[in-house]
TrEMBL record, chain A:
Its main location: membrane. This is Iron-enterobactin transporter ATP-binding protein. InterPro entries: AAA+_ATPase (IPR003593), ABC_transporter-like_ATP-bd (IPR003439), ABC_transporter-like_CS (IPR017871), P-loop_NTPase (IPR027417), Siderophore_ABC-ATPase (IPR051535). PROSITE patterns: ABC_TRANSPORTER_1, ABC_TRANSPORTER_2.
Automatic annotation (TrEMBL), chain B:
The lineage of its organism: Bacteria, Bacillati, Actinomycetota, Actinomycetes, Kitasatosporales. InterPro entries: ABC_BtuC-like, ABC_transptr_permease_BtuC. GO terms for biological process: siderophore-iron import into cell. This is Iron ABC transporter. The chain crosses the membrane at residues 32-54, 88-109, 121-144, 151-169, 175-198, 226-245, 265-294, 306-327, 333-354. Keywords: Cell membrane, Membrane, Transmembrane, Transmembrane helix, Transport. It is a multi-pass membrane protein. It comes from Streptomyces longispororuber. CDD domains: TM_ABC_iron-siderophores_like (cd06550). GO terms for molecular function: transmembrane transporter activity.
Amino acid sequence: MVAQYITEIGSEAVDSARLAAKGVSVGYGGTMVIDDLDVAIPPGVITTIIGPNGCGKSTLLRTLSRLLKPAKGAVVLDGQDIVKLKTKDVAKKLGLLPQAPVAPEGLTVADLVARGRHPHQSWLRQWSSDDVDVVERALAMTGVSDLADRPVDALSGGQRQRVWISMTLAQGTDLLLLDEPTTYLDLAHAVDVLDLVDDLHESGRTVVMVLHDLNLATRYSDHLVVMKDGTVLAQGHPRDVITADLLEEAFGLRAKVVDDPVGDRPLIVPIGRTHVQLD
Amino acid sequence: MKVQEPMNGTEVKASVTPGVRLGGVSFVWRPWLALVTLVLAAVTFLLFCLSISVGDFPIGLSQVVATLFGHGESVDEFIIMDLRMPRAMAGLVVGFALGVSGAITQSVARNPLASPDILGITSGASVVAVFLVTVSGGAAAAVVSSVGLSAAALAGGLGTGLLVYFLAWRRGIDGFRLILIGISVSAVMEALTTWLLVKADIKDVARAQAWLVGSLQDRSWDEVRIALWCTVVLMVVVGCVAFQFKPLHLGDDVAAGLGVRYQRVRAALLLCAVLLAAVGVSAAGPVPFVALVAPQVAMRLARHPTPPLVASGMTGALLLIGADLVARTALPVTLPVGVVTAAIGGPFLVYLLVRANLK
């Protein structure tokens, strides 16, 4: 069964996108993880990349953020090939939160968030009053001002993730790339962090993230990119993209897609084998 | 929760580290770190003077200080400047170089157990030095003036350091792989040293052993001057790169996201660390544990999450001069300084291991 999904991107979508991958192939040492992939990140919304384990989600995010250099094709940031831009200039436009980052033991929240100012600093100008203002605002926006003096390693997982997001905010970019921001978090804390991400989007930022949980991805994003085996299987609004057929094809998951009782998005109910009462 | 974009100054101020501005230069102001560094410098200077004043012909501390600032009497001046200064100065320079080298290595590897000893620099320098002393024998006697030995050890340390770096390279440097490769290369180098010692003439072995323990005895101004200038130049380079290095403590990906070309910065700093350690080893022999202990002590004193560079150097100098003083005065026999640093460093390493295991 090969279903037809919306994979085409209109040329105007690519033009309006601040960040786009064009014919990108990326791999580690010879084997290609991503092959000839096109994707455009729509401005001002939350885009979430989903897909089964090993489909190249994180690789795509790392390529979009310039951590990986594509073997073929190009990632375009504001009309320029991202590889040709200076590392520092990219860091002024695009904030990145990698998967499960680790802070040195004893580093305080304020100091960690302050590191986010690095792209705007130089040897002579290592710390200015502007930096202080931006860091204070970043702490306040993520609700961690009270924790400023605490060591990062003493915080709970959810608080820690807020602090890391705060650091990325201090970078002062309106483009944020988050690689699995809810890893190791229980559902309540995951929702809490995603609410924060939604706040950031409400304040005008463009967010791209990788998520594992399909229902959270559906609820919190305006644009889904579904990947399988290094290619984009479908992309678009969750209401258009999430169907039982697509879930079967992308994940090999038998599921029923119903209306979310508390939202305007679809809700995925996995079927599995046990305790199922299908009519 | 709704997002608040607070106006400047209206909200409760979070305690963000304040900055300091001097003309066009601004930097983070950490009073405690500055204070600790100053106190370390003061204590180091005190020990430095004490090291000069102690000897067969004791000279008062005030005399020493006066002579250092150019107001001394000529008799003392000869003893102080020509006879005793080189030893104290060697302790200062070598200790500082080893301390900074250790701080960089531990930061790069993100591991408190990393040190130039583990990266093979010490063992590489030892092989070359022992080879020169034992195998080359009389033929190279001219080369094996003390300065020649230092230069050869420097080359050996640098060569092994680079070998470890390239063996550990696999599309980038990973801290853990660097340590593993370092340990194995060190083991090979130590085996070579042992083999050379077993084969060598017993008279040469004694000389080689004396070098291998690490000592500040009988340093000449020539050796000290070379080490001093190398250290000064390397510290300038480290100072230039250090700012780019800060985000690296957060891991490669975060650093890259913050606009740091981390492979380049790390390679530059690691090269400086290798050279600093090699300079230290070539001037005083492989003094053990100073590079491992100094950054960890400095971190704890300064309550800093990562090894502070200058404070680590100061701690290294303090440790080495202090250990040398103990080696000369505490026991009836004069011991080489390496014996004392090993006696302090061994238990400290165990403490670090136990602490790492408790987590």
